[in-house]
Amino acid sequence: MSETWWRGAAIYQVYLRSFADGNGDGTGDLAGLRARLAYLAELGIDAIWLNPWYPSPMADGGYDVADYRGVHPWFGTLAEAEAFIGEAHGLGIRIIVDVVPNHTSDRSEWFRAALAAGPGSPERERFWFRPGRGDAPPNDWKSIFGGPAWTRVPDGEWYLHLFAPEQPDFNWTHPEVVQEFLDVLRFWFDRGVDGIRVDSAAVLVKDPDAEPDGLDPYTDRDAVHEIYRGWRALADTYPGRVLVGEVWLPDQERLARYLRPDEMHTVFNFPFLGAPWDAGVLRGVIDDTFATLGPMGAPATWVLGNHDVTRPVTRYGRRDTSFDHADRKHLAPTDPVLGVRRARAAALLSLALPGGVYIYQGEELGLPEVEDLPDEMRQDPIWERSGRTDRGRDGCRVPLPWSGVEPPFGFGDAEPWLPQPAGWKELTVEAQLADPASMLELYREALRVRRAELGDGSLTWLPSEEGVLAFARDSGLRCVVNLGAAPVPVAGEVLLASGPLDGDGLLPPDTAVWLR
Ligand code: GLC
Asked: Is the model's pTM score more than 0.85?
């Protein structure tokens, strides 16, 4: 496979804790994933991105990493991870691991050493320890998960955490921090991983002592790019590796800077993920994406969901179909039939667009967001940090249904760590494989066609009525998506459709078709 495989790859995101449980403890693991690798190979994906699998107290689902060079015992061992990488490669599937450079766990060796060594010690310089202003924190920064961004330790100093208190921020001006992460990257590249997903990539550089200067104090500071230049130089010494940035920035010009030829290879397309089900808005986002990335020579990535956001089926059935972290619209009324219909059409849209595509586990099954989890089962720190006003992200992290008619639906032998809705008996892999009209069959067929003739390349917009997106790909395949209220005529051989066409070749609302 080519060294630029990632330019047109279909990348499947595995949230390990919820994928498949191989050892019967209710938590997904590497044994479960390895046993289901054939499922992913048959689905037709090119790569897997795994959320953090490292030892962690799990204060933030593993994004509080205690040891960047190990595997959490819940998930297995480093030896199993290595075996898994080898098996995936044997099936032609590449592996992307998640690296979390902004913060570590409060239980990590470095942070424990910093606490023990006390104020003024070199150990504290790897983090952001500061005296307070009297009894007040050093400044007024707020945590992204809610509440203050500073926590006080028993000796009176405060430390900075942009996320939960269990996630102290590293001081990236410290040469040992820089060196440590180059070593971590090397560690995983040496074990054969094909890429790194860079967590919270825009917030690493900050200066808590600076006078407020009108700029955001920690998002997208210019000096952050120096870090990624170092990472790219290292990645370039290993053939075929990719750096994928998690960069949430509204300003596309600023976003493009992360994709300069000596920085990251790709970033997630969050404007696409956040866009409402609206032809004009989507067309605008698609055009902006190419306008932004084109000059950098970077391919687009098309993303409908991930482990942080509301599942598409639920979102697209609401009145407001956009997504925004600031307001998850939890429990807003949703029409499940409409949501599924649109999610099917959105799948064909995103799989037809030029570039790479991400599929978050369960999207291929059309799983909805689970919005009625019992409060006492919620694990996402956002729930408590927001004073129980934001129900957070657990609803898109519920363990997958594989087979059978009742929980745990073949996920494993034990009760899963989050409860699965009884209605998921219709959505199991087993049920969907037996149904040619299922979401899973749509994904499988679309990925098969995509692999043969889509992926990287360009598109040509075709004339279309209002509310309709229509474009042709290099191979001649045409994709038409009807987001309007009335059926529209389409002509040509139908390769694949997200729903039945009306008689006389009319494409109904909220339906997409691939034509030749
Ligand atoms: C990223 C992750 C999210 C995590 C946060 C803090 O946004 O995707 O799950 O909570 O970073 O690490």
From this structure: yes
Question: What's the pLDDT tens digit per position in 122-153?
Answer: 999 999 999 999 999 999 999 999 999 999 99
**What tokens appear for 8 in the block?**
């047109």
**Which ligand 1 atom minimizes the distance to the CA of 306?**
8
Distance CA 77, CA 279 (A): 47
Task: Return the SS3 of 360.
Answer: strand
* Cα distance between residue 342 and residue 317, in whole Å: 8
For a mutational test of ligand 1's pocket, the pick from 63, 108, 144, 167, i.e. the residue with the most ligand atoms closer than 8 A to its C-beta, is 63
Same domain, 127 and 203: no
CATH number of the domain within which 494 lies: 2.60.40.1180
Active site residue 415: no
Task: Measure CA 49 to chain center.
Answer: 8
Domain-embedded: residue 166: no
Clarify whether residues 226 and 353 are in a common domain: yes
| Spatial CB neighbours of 226, under 8 Å, sequence gap ≥ 6 | none
Quote the ligand 1 centre to 302 CA distance (angstroms): 19
Q: Which residues line ligand 1 (CB under 6 A)?
A: 60, 63, 100, 163, 199-200, 246, 307-308
Pocket test for ligand 1, best of 13, 17, 60, 104 (most atoms within 8 A of CB): 60
What gap in Å lies between CA 373 and CA 210, rounded to an integer?
A: 42
Q: Domain boundary residue among 418, 443, 468? A: 443
Active site residue 199: yes
Helix (H), strand (E) at residue 506: strand 506-507
CA of 199 to the centre of ligand 1 (A): 6
CA distance 499 to 331: 27
The protein residue whose alpha carbon is closest to atom 7 in ligand 1 is 200
pLDDT value at position 214?
A: 66
- Which ligand 1 atom sits closest to the C-alpha of 145? 10
In a domain, 449, yes or no: no
